[in-house]
Amino acid sequence: MRRHDAPDEGIARAGLRPAPGGVEDAAVRFLVGGQVVVLAYGGAVHVVQLATGGWPPYAWAPAWLAGYFTALTVLDPLAAGLLWARRRAGLVLSVTVLVTDAAANGYATYGLGLDAPAARIAQAVISVLALTALVTAPAVWKHLTLTKDR
After folding, report:
1. Which label site among 11, 35, 94, 102 has the fewest CB atoms less than 10 Å from its CB?
2. Which pLDDT tens digit goes with each residue over 59-99?
């Protein structure tokens, strides 16, 4: 007679929702928590910049770059919320936002000549965060779900 696994066991073995606990789960929670904080902070920074920067927003930047930075006021918190809810879509959006934000900040800093030391430091920090998110994404992926069910 063939043994039938409980639905949760089959899902866990498939890599969709591993059983909680252990060092790996704690590390993933730390990584996801860190990304959530970074994205929430980034969203807040962009809201403050929009509120205090005048019109048009990011007047110093080309229109496409200003549009991207403006879009981050929605994309950063959206990615943070999806990650907090342990959704794979949140991980994809988080990595995409962090990598493209690092590239956009790199262009702004070096391509447009915003040569202030603070801009260089900020660009380096976001690049490290993006690289960390990209490198750790495969390990985090298997701990997240495709749907709202846990």
Report:
1. 11
2. 889 999 999 999 999 999 999 999 998 889 999 999 999 99
- Does some domain include residue 13? no
Query: pTM value?
Result: 0.78
In 55-128, which ranges are E strands?
Answer: none
Torsion 148-99-78-26 (CA) sign: positive
Residue 12 covered by a domain: no
Q: Please give the Cα distance from 66 to 57 (Å, whole number).
A: 7
Sign of CA dihedral 86, 88, 89, 92: positive
In a domain, 9, yes or no: no
How many beta carbons lie within 10 A of that of residue 18, not counting itself?
Answer: 16
